[in-house]
Design brief:
The structure is a homodimer. With about 450 residues, the first copy, chain A, is of the alpha+beta class. Chain A is built from 13 helices and 17 strands. Chain A has a 9-stranded mixed beta sheet. In chain A, strand 13 (about 355-360), helix 12 and strand 14 (about 385) form a beta-alpha-beta unit. Chain A starts with 19 loop residues before the first helix and ends in an 11-residue tail after the last strand. In chain A, about 45% of the residues are buried.
Chain lengths: ~450, ~450
């Protein structure tokens, strides 16, 4: 009996969408993140989803898959368009934005950005091709005070603590420390050392020792590197431990001083949320100083949920200025989906933002009921007026189905009292729409 | 002296982006729109930006230009992907969403959606290729109460009144009225009549008369149609005027009754914001009952800023269910940009959300100043701590440049009072960070 013209839609892998009750929580997450960003005075910007392909590739070939665009009905003679593509992160667009609007912006430029990004991956389970990313960066002209390296960490801890994601820990290091250590140890080929140390949390000291020995390093140096990679302290005490390794170099000293300063300014954060962890190196060559990673303590294997660092030059591909910066990013959709799959999103019974359903005793009473709804709404509540004068039982069932917490009964007759029912407790009591509040007499 | 490797970015026509001070207002607009939608109990959904091309075309060829996607590094053997494209509106995705999740949704399904949409237009001034649209719809199974036709109008008036866009008027009609009138007049070819009447606001009665005579209609019928198209009333009094035309048909009677009912439920809205205007027909054949358009009274030629109507079947291309609905949409970016160009966005001096800049008397006082910033921030204020112990004059200049309304001076010495300066009035007074509020002693 199916209509042959029907095209039955299916979910396209990698492009998630949520039911209203899940979307409600996603909105709460995004509101919270935005609120914290703004509480530190960071401004919002948004950039187009689309950039010229040449802009995206100005730094060289991109290793991420890019979606390029074609107009469906483009005629062959139409050469008016540059080649366009969807952005794959918010860093390249930020760089382009800062370069393009350089003279109109104030520095240090403190911005956050919460948009969708796209990666043209091969479809596979658990890999998103469209997702939200929440980025915060500070860009300076010629320099960015170290102040911001600690401020960004504090902001992210504020955010994650408010998201109810369970215990987590932000690990901070400084690229100069490992680079300086290698200098001091006389190691010229740093790449394999970086890779091995980066893995110590996953593969353990023995695995890292194995990787380092494959790089043909002397046993004593390997042990120094292993000791180094295990340094993890809740305050500046990492400094002594590094000094105890007996290695020195100017870069090492600089990195230690920077990280110590960042940690010293984070002492107001409750213990355990932030650690200096010298095994953190971040994969990207991009970073030149402070680096951040953040793990869920109940599942470290999930990888970093919030990462970033300090970079030397944001926009050198687009403008002849020296614009260093520091930034951190949350891969929001990935973290949110993980919490969703693990049943940790909180209350999913509410399928709408409605606080109160105002019943319609009958179609004749519509104006009186509408007036009640308006009074409650003007007082800041989210109010649905039931759409037809059906039996009250039907109206109550609607409230139950949608998880609406309160149902309001306007009187059938003038002079009678209003009543309101708390759908959770079952309590029903008289109420005045002009004064009633959630949690008070309810 | 330009580095030859620099790729100088330029604005791509049709993809607008805003400076922080403009983006701040755009956020206020979107917050306001969302708040009103939710105050009536509508839930938010978002759909992926990307749909299968077959989904977008399930109703037949689309007259809008679609952007299709290609993976940049796709190898020719990879046939795993269906052909994907960016959505060009939010109605097709809503239809697909409702069909796909039909069993998990509650009806009437009341949702709003505020996302970017894309149209692969040829680049030209004033035409956006990426823009925000704000849609609100109610979808029913087999029927949607007329209640919602008036509720949506009330919602949109609430929204537009809050946006400070100057005087506007929503015009409401019902497609059945014109169709029924043509039936009653014995006109079988309705299309040219619709087109002519649709234009009366732009070209006047004489122009419409001209168009109708080109459709070879008798003079008397033309005059009836002209009289009809000029009917515009602030309440249900349009009914008498239509009846006075002396034409009747069952469809006409139905349309009149529906529109009269919608208007009767809008009497709580202040006069002038909503009118029954029988010249409104909407271009789309899609609509079957109520239709809405909204004009800026200071510039009617700008066209409708907020339009929609009632449709008979949302998702027939994707599911074997009868799902009628009613919806209205604001083309947010177009309206916002118009207000921007006309200098009507309000205060553009604030380049960040910061309420207060806390000065750093010196780098030694950093922890004390940070503590003040935290106290103010915990009380819900947006607070920047100045990033380095530069001269106070420099810090003040920063506040002026960014349009920060208040500057806080923590004491240099313990026991001294804090002071706060209102940057607008120039008043400076002592203050306690634990009790200070904007607008009170400030």
């Amino acid at each position: 009996m199916t209509d042959p013209k029907i095209y039955k839609p299916r979910a396209v892998t990698g492009f998630p969408e949520w039911l209203p009750e899940v979307r409600r929580i996603e909105q709460q997450w995004m509101d919270h993140i935005r609120k914290v960003f703004e509480s530190y005075g960071f401004c919002s910007i948004e950039t187009p989803s689309i950039e010229e392909l040449d802009v995206l590739r100005a730094k060289g070939e991109v290793d991420k898959e890019i979606y390029v665009l074609e107009r469906l009905h483009k005629d062959d003679n139409d050469k008016s368009d540059a080649r366009l593509a969807l952005h794959f992160d918010q860093t390249v667009p930020l760089a382009r934005y800062v370069a393009q609007h350089f003279n109109e912006l104030d520095f240090p430029f403190k911005r956050y950005q919460m948009q969708r990004v796209w990666r043209g991956e091969r479809p596979q389970a658990g890999r998103f091709r469209e997702f939200y990313q929440c980025d915060i960066d500070v860009i300076g002209v010629d320099n960015v005070p170290l102040h911001f390296d600690s401020e960004l960490a504090a902001i992210m801890v504020d955010i994650l603590r408010g998201l109810d994601i369970g215990p987590f820990q932000m690990q901070i290091s400084n690229r100069k420390i490992l680079i300086g250590l290698c200098e001091g140890l006389g190691i010229s080929n740093i790449a394999p050392v970086t890779r091995a140390i980066d893995k110590i949390e996953k593969i353990g000291a023995e695995g890292t020792r194995q990787l380092l020995s494959e790089a043909h390093l002397p046993a004593q140096i390997i042990e120094t590197l292993i000791s180094f990679a295990q340094i993890k302290t809740e305050n500046e005490s990492f400094v002594e431990k590094v000094l105890a390794l007996g290695v020195s170099s100017p870069t090492l000293a600089e990195g230690i001083a920077e990280l110590a300063s960042v940690m010293a300014r984070l002492t107001h954060i409750e213990r355990g949320y932030v650690v200096a962890d010298l095994s953190i190196v971040r994969g990207l060559d991009y970073y030149t100083g402070t680096v951040y990673e953040t793990k869920l303590l109940e599942n470290r294997d999930f990888g970093s949920i919030c990462s970033g660092g300090r970079y030397d030059d944001l926009a050198g591909s687009y403008i002849n200025k020296h614009l260093p910066g520091v930034g951190i990013s949350i891969g929001l959709s990935r973290l949110f989906d993980y919490m969703r799959i693990n049943g940790k999103l909180g209350d999913l019974t509410r399928k709408s933002p409605t606080d109160i359903l105002v019943c319609l005793p009958s179609d004749e009473n519509r104006n009186a009921a509408a007036e009640v709804a308006k009074i409650l709404r003007d007082r800041g509540l989210n109010v649905e007026l039931y759409h037809s004068g059906q039996k009250i039982k039907k109206q109550m069932e609607y409230a139950v189905r949608k998880g609406i917490p309160f149902v309001w009964f306007p009187p059938f007759d003038v002079g009678q009292p209003h009543e309101v029912k708390n759908m959770k407790t079952g309590t029903q009591s008289t109420a005045d729409p002009k004064t009633w509040m959630i949690g008070k007499n309810s």
